[in-house]
Amino acid sequence: MPNSEGLRPTTDRVRETLFNWLAPVIRGARCLDCFAGSGALGLEALSRYAESATLLEYERSVAQQLGKNLALLQGNGSVVNTNALTWLAGNGQPFDVVFLDPPFRKGLLAIPSRCWNNRAG
């Protein structure tokens, strides 16, 4: 994975715990991995039989590497090289599971949370 400021993959232990919690819903789910970074969450979802995963990544070199990794895994997914906040504001596609793990200390988590609250309300 190319070096990118703020890229900090979710630790194995946290990822294992998260996916143990999600086990009842992940199989067959349509997943969205916002701020994909290393792609660990979206790719893990695919490895646990999610129907699909859409990975959003802003850094072009990171998105390109994610695309290569996804192709190697032959997973049913896509990588979108985009600003996740812009994409979230303009996309109405439904997802069953959404991962929001923005870059550390950038204050980005509140913004997508408001997008979801506005859609749900």
From TrEMBL:
GO terms for molecular function: 16S rRNA (guanine(966)-N(2))-methyltransferase activity; nucleic acid binding. Its EC number is 2.1.1.171. The keyword Transferase applies. It catalyses: guanosine(966) in 16S rRNA + S-adenosyl-L-methionine = N(2)-methylguanosine(966) in 16S rRNA + S-adenosyl-L-homocysteine + H(+). Transmembrane segments: none annotated. It is an enzyme of class 2 (transferase). InterPro entries: DNA_methylase_N6_adenine_CS, RNA_MeTrfase_RsmD, SAM-dependent_MTases_sf. Keywords: Methyltransferase, Transferase. It holds the Pfam family Cons_hypoth95. Belongs to the methyltransferase superfamily. RsmD family. PANTHER family: METHYLTRANSFERASE. This is Ribosomal RNA small subunit methyltransferase D. It comes from Serratia fonticola.
